[in-house]
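Quick start: what a row looks like.
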Amino acid sequence: MDKYKTDVLVIGAGAVGTAMARELSKLSLKVILVDRLNDVGGDASKSNSAIIHTGFDAPPQSLESSLVVHANPMYDQLCSDLDVPFARTGAVLVAITKEEQAELPAIIAKARANHVYDTEYLTASQVLDLEPEVNPEVRAGLYVPRESIIDPFLLVVAQAENAAANGVEILTDWQIVSLNQDKTAFVAESAAGQIETRFVVNAAGLFTDVISGFLGIKDFQVYPRRGQFHILDKAAPLGVKHIILPVPTKITKGKLLTPTIHGNWLMGPTAEDLDDRFAHQTTSEGLQEIVNGVRKLVPSVKAEFAITQYAGLRPVRNPGGYHIRTFEHLPGYLELSGIRSTGLTSSLAVARYACGKLIEMGMPNKRKEKFISKRKAITCFSKADAETKQKLIKDNPMYGRVICRCETVTEAEMIEAIRRTPGAKDLDGIKRRVRAGLGRCQGGFCGMRVPRILSDQLGISMEEVTKKGPGSEILIGTTKSLRINRNETDSL
């Protein structure tokens, strides 16, 4: 059993956990970030609507409102520093019925209470001028210019890479099975090892109540709210430029249609309260519900435009609301719970706020003299001009080998995705870092080429290559072999 000793242990490598790790890496501390899964990204952070919110419709005077509103303007600099794709597309909130139109003044008042003063009322004709594909029966709308889109997984990966470059150790496949306070330290255990630490940050998302429960804190519960989504083909004839939002309800922001940072469209989500924290499957009923809901906003949307579907689980807290808590009887323990649908947006401000709480509990606050603030993304071959492509291939012939045709992803990009820290270990890790398998054919062409690259780079057999960690192996053996010469064979 491996044993570690650290100053700060961050539990959960989703958006909040990786932002926390990066923020802590600015200080002269030893920091370990752990996650129960085999990659960073968590449950909710890699499967959401990929929107950076302004907080215009957050509960006024709440912790959530304050953190979301303050986080939004932080993304321009962060995404520039970490080379993460980000676009301020703006959003149009659409009121189709009289009842929805009647809600707009209250939404504007809420936006003003949240200090989001650039939210504007739109007449029906103004809505259609901005987005001609919106339902012609629209009665009015709101324009929210700073609602933005991002690649949530690349955001998490970029922060994890930057944290690692600044000394944070990242342990995956590290599910905590116990957490105890031992005099002036905490001891966390998993099947993989033991960590002794002075400070603990519980950013475990769906499992924050489990982690707190180890320390006897049982005054709240977390349950999953499933959100299903469709991803639409880049060639779908929609022409939508803004995020198209419905009038929200008390339970959900509703089913939206949004362009993605990579040129597709995304529509969803559902809002299904479940008991199973592992229910990531989609359902025919939920997917049809999305189509029906979005077509009320944009009638030209059709189910046949979809190239794939997915589901994410949002960690809903009961009692609700954002909670960033310390406990007098547990000095050094910080719990971050109830951070759900706006958690991707708020994560940057949550990290700053939470670091302040740790400092109040006695965490040393000495800044590093040489903090590495920037990180360079993997070169995207498909977006390079002809001259750059030629140079890339000349310098590294692997750029001349296109593995994923739909997204024009080369072997060089995949190899770099594997070799980085933290690097891709499976098909999903490759897919989310460089988009291999995310195009129209959904891996029909590259599906058996990527496993060979993973096998070669990780030094494992083809049978050990997985889709998303142990238990998701994609091959069980060899069916036949091709003779290369008298002494060599290559398995097919």
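That is the whole record. The chain has three domains: 2-46+152-220+319-360, 91-145+223-315, 381-491. The first helix runs from residue 15 to 24.
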